[in-house]
Amino acid sequence: MSALDLAVIGGSGLYSFPGLENTARHTLHTPYGPASGDVVQGDFAGMRVAFLARHGEGHNLPPHRVNYRANLWALHQLGARRVIGVNAVGGIRHDMGPQAIVVPDQLIDYTHGRYTSYCDAEGAEVKHIDFSEPYTASLRQQLLAAAHTAGIAVIDGGCYGATQGPRLETRAEIARMKRDGCDLVGMTGMPEAALARELSLDYACLALVANFAAGCGDEAEISIEEIFAHLAAATAQVPRLLAALPK
Ligand code: HPA
């Protein structure tokens, strides 16, 4: 049996896991350097859960400086087999407005200059993972079923466009992403999903919509205060949703 039932990577607005009990902190050293912070392991809803704040517990790491390789390696080392990435996003599709919760099924990567693979170390085996379906289908279904059980509305499917950040996008960039087929935009979805696949982890994304992406809503400008207010409302639903996952 795996030591862990679930690992959760918290994004903006989720820096600790409410309801996690009997916790122990692990400072893990990985061949790729330090993770974003300690992994906090504990009991939640009958599961052994590990939680890691992607941006650090004090939100000190911008998306392009997150050590995605170390984070997933650390969770894998602790025995994680199932990982949920919680990501703040902007909504591009009209029905993906602030506070919507989406379980995307596709992604497009617009990031650059990040370490995107474990196979660039000297002598490492070169792996070409299949990434046709970037999220683990069975884990997506578990999330959707859990949301249904918990009575939380979620949108099934959508394409996540991963941008470099930390700035928000221009209206022209979002218009291009829309033409490309993106429904959501966020800064942290990649390379996390691909690294999880390289480690053979089950991985799915729970995307919390904080704002309409540039040019998609009525506002001329996107306010950070508004982003965090909407995120807080969506984030409040996450523990109840995850509690309904199968053990
Ligand atoms: N763009 C990129 N990432 C985001 C956004 C956005 O509009 N909102 C929250 N994360």
Give your account of this protein's structure.
- Helix content is 24%, strand content 26%.
- The protein is an alpha/beta fold and 247 residues long.
- A hairpin with a 2-residue loop joins strand 5 and strand 6 (47-53).
- The chain is globular and about 45 Å long.
- The termini are close together.
- The model has no long low-confidence stretch (mean pLDDT 96).
Overall body shape: globular
What is Rg? Answer: 17 Å
Distance between the termini: 12 Å
Which small-molecule ligands are present, each listed once? hypoxanthine
- Number of DSSP helices? 6
Instruction: Describe the main β-sheet briefly.
Output: 11 strands, mixed
How many strands in all? 13
Binned strand content: 25-35%
Unreliable residue runs: none
Mean pLDDT: 96
Topology:
Layout: E1 6-10, E2 21-26, E3 29-30, E4 33-34, E5 39-44, E6 47-53, H1 68-77, E7 82-91, E8 101-103, E9 106-109, H2 137-150, E10 155-156, E11 159-162, H3 171-180, E12 184-186, H4 192-198, E13 202-212, H5 224-235, H6 238-243
Parallel strand pairs: 1-6, 1-7, 7-13, 8-10, 9-11, 11-12
Antiparallel strand pairs: 2-5, 3-4, 5-6, 7-12, 8-13
Bound molecules: hypoxanthine.
Residues 88-90, 163, 168-169, 185-187, 210-211, 213, 227 line the site of hypoxanthine (HPA).
Summarize the structure.
It holds the Pfam family PNP_UDP_1. The chain is of the alpha/beta class and 247 residues long.
